[in-house]
Amino acid sequence: MQRKNLFALIAGLVSIILGLTVIVGWYTHNFVLLRIHPAFVAMAFNTALGFAFSGSALVAATLRRPRISMICANIVILIGFLTLLEYACQVNLRIDELFMRAYIRAGIVNPGRMAVCTAFCFVSLGVAIRMHFGTIRGSRQSAVVVLLGTTVMGLGIIALTGYFTGVTTFYTWGKLTRMAAHTAVGFIVVGMGVISLEWTRSRSFLRLLPILAGGITLTAALCLWQALIVMQHGQEQWMAKVGNAVPPPAGLVTIERNMPGIALTLGLIFAVLKALSVHLAQLSHERALQSAVAKREKSRLAAIVESSGDCILSCDLNGDVVYCNEAAYDFFGQVLRNGTITADELLAVGGKPAIVLPAIARMREGRKSERLEIRCADKTGAKHDLAITLSPVINEDGVFTGVAAIARDVSAMKEIEQQIREYAVVLEYQNAELELANSKLHSLARVDGLTGIANQRAFRERAAEEFVRARDGATALSIIMLDVDRFKQYNDTYGHPAGDEVLRTLGGILSRESRAIDFVARYGGEEFILVLPRNVDDAMVLAKRIRAAVEKERWPLRSVTISCGVSTFHVETRDVDELVALADKALYKSKIDGRNRVTHAGELEDEAWPSASSFLH
């Protein structure tokens, strides 16, 4: 936490402690806590509440709790405003003794009511804290916050001075309730806390010092004014006792009567002059700082320009080069030192048209900077690619005086860009080949090498997708599992190549007889499986059609038949494996019933069936 923030936090805590201490004094009848000295005025209970909430608002603001701070500030404003309303309208709103009956009534016109200046200070504090959290920040708002804090602090200083000097008018407005001594101390502390709080928030707090200086000067003038009023009042009482026996000179009486007003007027003028003198001193100091900063920036800018690796040229309105840095000398050579030369002559290569003078003409019409690339020769005649930026040069009066050209050698970058483009072409070709290879690999991983249809891995993926759709009620789902009858005997008799040919032919028949939405796969060995988004009847029709097609096929060696098992999804089906297991049992039932037939799992009895793979084909 910054020191200024720390001071505001301490001021808030002191205010809370002061308020709570006096509240305890009221409840415990401790007169030392209420008025410090028997001759002093007691602090009202509502005043103690005001200090407690003012301190809470200040602490919350320091700890960046704006909502709590605003609530406490509103309560402080309400307490002060209602009291001022009682004084202004001469009414009793029943708030003076709302929380505590004022049992100290000696010399008090309105028991329990805080002084007018106390209520005014509380309203000023609440408004200042609310303005501190305003959504629109600016120097004027900060000035008002500091002015309110200075006013509260000044009124506290005046009242406390009255206690030290015995001048009661310093802490009394007319014949109304007086401000207590520790109330004055509290306002000094809280007023300084508000000023410190704004200091941490405002970016230009030093600009608020004239207000602070003027406020302090005005506080001293008010003290002098009050003292002169007391002296004049005492003189009038003395003259009333003596009578007209020894009348003073007429001129002296006029001066004495007008002395408080004259002192107050001179004090106000002096406060204004004090604030003005501080402001002028600040302006002079700021200008000196700005001048020193400008010189440092100019020197640093010159060093940057001279040490830059880019060629920097400055041309007048005729296009003549009036300045160039060391990098330009190194690139273009002695031609820059031999006399006046235009920028177009310096940059011209192979009869190319001028670029600087046309740019100057366009900038006269309001064009901003321009960027272009040219190919130019250095002092050795070697060609370079230069990226040139042309910008208008504006003097302090805002007049267009010439053009600044910054040329950067981008030859190496051009070569790198060309290499990158070549590498990009090669990389694009390689990526295309890699994608093609990946696509082929993916297809091979899902296709059976013998039959050319999907394999068991692809079946698992498709079956899982169709199972989710069936479970959500989108489609029906059936599974057909089939295998070749007595296939082992066929292999043993005619050889494995002949058996492989049977499997390839069977895969073709399955693909031909099924629809596009059906999924055909080789499950393993001579077993095939189909995933069908069909109901029971449609699945059975397809299975029977496939069985008949296989039986009618012209086989070269001997007739071939198949047995089929069908299962269909229902609400109690747990997963795909259960469907496959039911189709496998139905296939087994077809085997034991004589082969070359179709059986649905719904036809099975409740007894456990072995898998078809256990049956001798």
Describe the structure.
It is built from 18 helices and 10 strands. 59% of the residues lie in helices and 11% in strands. It folds into 5 domains: 3-203; 204-305, no CATH class; 308-409, Beta-Lactamase (2-Layer Sandwich), CATH 3.30.450.20; 414-441; 456-614, 2-Layer Sandwich (Alpha-Beta Plaits), CATH 3.30.70.270. It has 617 residues and is α+β, with helices and mostly antiparallel strands. Strands 2-1-5-4-3 form a 5-stranded antiparallel sheet. A 5-stranded mixed sheet has the order 7-8-6-9-10. The chain starts with a helix and ends in a 17-residue tail after the last strand.
Q: Termini distance?
A: 89 Å
**Biggest beta sheet attributes:** 5 strands, antiparallel
| Shape field | flat
The assigned structural class equals alpha+beta
Strand order of the largest sheet: 2-1-5-4-3
Tally of strands: 10
The helix content, as a percent range, equals 55-70%
Q: In what range is the share of β-strand residues?
A: 5-15%
Q: Structurally, how many domains make up the residues?
A: 5
Residue ranges: pLDDT <50 for 5 or more in a row? 249-255, 607-617
What's the Cα radius of gyration?
51 Å
What is the string of SSEs from the N terminus onward?
Answer: HHHHHHHHHEEHHHEEEHHEHHEEHEHE
Mean pLDDT: 80
Number of helices, counting only DSSP H or I runs of 4 residues or more:
18
